[in-house]
Amino acid sequence: MIEYVKEGLLNLVFPLDCKICGKPIRESKGYSICEDCFKTIELIDKPYCVKCNKPLLISVDLFRQEQNIFCVDCKKKKYSFEFARSVGRYDGVLRECIHLFKYYGEKKLAKPLGKLLIDYLTKNEEFRELIDLIIPVPLHKNDLKERGFNQSVLLAKIIGNYFSIPVKEEVLIKKRLTPSQVGLSKKERDKNIFKAFFINEPKEVKGKNILILDDIFTTGSTVEECAKELKKAGTKNIFVLTLARSV
Ligand SMILES: [Zn+2]
Ligand SMILES: [Zn+2]
Fold it and tell me: Which spans in the chain are helix H?
């Protein structure tokens, strides 16, 4: 509460500007993006691949009739997770927000970005009810030192607190430092991330329904590698949620 009042007073003296459009934000609620910019975020909507959430070029009617529609990739591949979902397209304002958050240390963006995830899980109650435990995708300790924080951990804590779902950040560890996945093909990504993770405390995940949380889903290589390790440790079902999905 005091934080809130302090923030409000600070905004009166030094008004915050929206990090995207530059307009001053009157009631910031701690956000550094204005509401107008936030409203332009394009959410992932039906019809989509039921496995990986990739938007599909079919009619919504056909999507409703058919129970299991997969994209071309998911028809060929077996994943260790049940399904992956993303809130919005990795584009426009959402892409810019994630960049500012991750690479420019705009930690304040955790709040509005976390709210996007909260809204998503509020709307998709049947999905939320499946989750026993949230595991954020870890960073290697060198990357963590450089960035100062793990964006996925911050987001996981926001939704964990809101829905009272436990978050475990020490269970899944990134043991190998991997070059950035940006610009790599699916094959190269798979190879790059192969066996990069290990489970530190298997008893924490055994028999549990796990939500793997990350910021972006690109080809699914990273979350699949995490899911594979979790599966080996005896988890029940694994689900994936990311803020954004590259389309
Ligand atoms: Zn704006
Ligand atoms: Zn798919």
Answer: 2-13, 35-39, 60-65, 72-76, 92-103, 110-123, 125-128, 141-147, 151-163, 186-193, 221-232
- The first and second tokens of residue 187, run together, are 């094959």
User: Residue 6: pLDDT band by 50, 70, 90 thresholds?
Assistant: low
Residue range 41-245, CATH number: 3.40.50.2020
pTM value surpassing 0.85: yes
For the chain, how far is it from start to end, CA to CA, in angstroms?
A: 40
Is residue 168 a contact partner of residue 226, using CB atoms and an 8 Å limit?
A: no
Q: How far is the CA of 106 from the centre of ligand 1 (A)?
A: 15
Tell how far the Cα of 221 is from the centroid of ligand 2, in angstroms. Answer: 13
Domain-wise residue ranges, the chain: 1-40, 41-245
Ligand nearest to the CA of 39: 1
**What is the rounded CA–CA span in Å between residue 207 and residue 237?**
8
pLDDT average, residue stretch 2-7: 56
Distance 75 CA to ligand 2 centre (A): 7
User: Is the bond preceding residue 47 a cis peptide, omega within 30 degrees?
Assistant: yes
User: Are the beta carbons of 102 and 187 closer than 8 angstroms?
Assistant: no
User: Could you tell me the distance, in angstroms and rounded to a whole number, from the CA of residue 39 to the centre of ligand 1?
Assistant: 9
